[in-house]
Write a structure and sequence with these properties.
With 384 residues, the protein is an alpha/beta fold. It folds into two domains: 272 residues, TIM Barrel, CATH 3.20.20; 91 residues, Sandwich (Immunoglobulin-like). The protein is built from eleven helices and 17 strands. The strands form three sheets. It has an eight-stranded parallel sheet. The protein is elongated, with a radius of gyration of 21 Å. The relative contact order is 0.12. The mean pLDDT is 97.
Length: 384
């Protein structure tokens, strides 16, 4: 029953945690599913709707099964999954490798196979698997491999999202577990500092990410603007420019794109960021090549340039200004393999302005506003 497309490129979808935390219910999930379709998010590629922690009762049922909270989900999870599927979406849920979830609900420790079969019976397509309340005598590789085996033998294709926060050098062993994505960071907060710190911390982890196993830099905070039921996450919010830079980095660095804002009330600016097809295409490139840092010429140490080779021979180029002042950044084409002697140049297409900028040779220089970026798709062309 294995679908070879599952996890081939970074998954895209929506997750309930960043905005709603424990305040989730069936009506929220249904109206969010409606909005994912009506707003064009599904058409843009966001196919997974994922319920995070706090969906079950505090104790398992009399037969050891997980029990959805009847006040939050009065019709049960199968009915919720059926509704999500009726919209053309895929349905995701949450559990934990420990005895309890991070919010204190039953985890899947030593219930992996029965839980996987229960998720399959409900029609689950995606499992986020957290790392709280783990018994101290068992390591992460054992527990994540165990749930991966259970999912692969449950009778349904379920994407496995391993959320272990980067502990135990997860990037060194997670591909062998069978997970399609893996969290390599702590929880993101809705702030420029949190987002930028996470991005910088993952520059040296890029080579560990690739097709069928993607480095998850945590959910998107785009469009939250400080609105969350969770005080840890809601720490002031970002500007739309900062959200644009956040989205650009996650896309260029091949992170799964899991929306965390309340899409039912998103602004037009938020929608334009989340549905930018040119930037999404870079994230969804079938080869999932890692970006690499290119020498950046500028007067600020807060400037940097990333280059990512794409499947058709193009380059994705990201130029970022993490500083607080407008500054010029430049890079030389020889640093990405295009010396002047080759007789080639780059034809630049601006992925945020959606326009061609013409052909340049040897180098590209541009002024970038503070906390802003430039994202280009560049085609290699002959110049003589």
């Amino acid at each position: 029953m294995f679908d070879p497309k599952i996890g081939m490129v970074p998954p895209m979808g929506w997750n309930s945690w960043n905005t709603f935390s424990w305040n989730i219910n069936e009506e929220l999930i249904r109206t969010t599913a409606d909005t994912m379709v009506e707003s064009g998010l599904l058409e843009a590629g966001y196919e997974y709707l994922v319920i995070d922690d706090c969906w079950s009762l505090r104790k398992r049922g009399e037969h050891g099964e997980l029990v959805p909270d009847p006040e939050k989900f009065p019709n049960g999870m199968k009915a919720v999954a059926d509704y999500v599927h009726s919209k053309g979406l895929k349905f995701g849920m949450y559990s934990c490798c420990g005895t309890h979830t991070c919010a204190g609900y039953p985890g899947s420790f030593e219930h992996e196979f029965e839980d996987a079969e229960q998720f399959a019976s409900w029609g689950v397509d995606f499992l986020k698997y957290d790392n709280c309340f783990k018994p101290g005598h068992i390591d992460d590789p054992t527990l994540y491999r165990r749930m991966s085996t259970a999912l692969r033998n449950c009778g349904r294709d379920i994407l496995f999202s391993a959320c272990n926060w980067g502990t135990e050098d997860v990037w060194n062993w997670i591909r062998s577990s069978g997970a399609q994505m893996f969290r390599s960071t702590g929880d993101i907060q809705d702030s420029w500092k949190s987002m930028s710190d996470i991005a910088l911390s993952q520059m040296d982890k890029q080579p560990f990410s690739g097709t069928y196993c993607h480095n998850d830099m945590d959910m998107l905070i785009v469009g939250m603007h400080g609105k969350s039921d969770n005080d840890f996450i809601a720490v002031g919010g970002c500007t739309d420019v900062e959200y644009k830079t956040h989205f650009s980095l996650w896309a260029l660095m091949n992170s799964p794109l899991m929306i965390g804002c309340d899409i039912r009330s998103m602004t037009e600016e938020t929608k334009q960021i989340l549905t930018n097809r040119d930037v999404i295409a870079i994230n969804q490139d079938v080869e999932c090549r890692s970006p690499y840092k290119v020498q950046c010429f500028g007067w600020s140490e807060k400037l940097f340039v990333l280059a990512k080779p794409l499947a058709n021979g193009d380059y994705a180029i990201g130029m970022f200004n993490f500083g607080d002042k407008r500054a010029e950044a430049a890079f030389g084409f020889w640093d990405i393999g295009i010396p002047a002697a080759s007789g080639r140049g780059l034809e630049f297409y601006d992925c945020w302005e959606h326009q061609s900028l013409g052909v340049e040779t040897e180098r590209h220089a541009v002024e970038i506003d503070p906390h802003d970026c430039k994202i280009y798709r560049c085609k290699v062309v002959k110049v003589r």
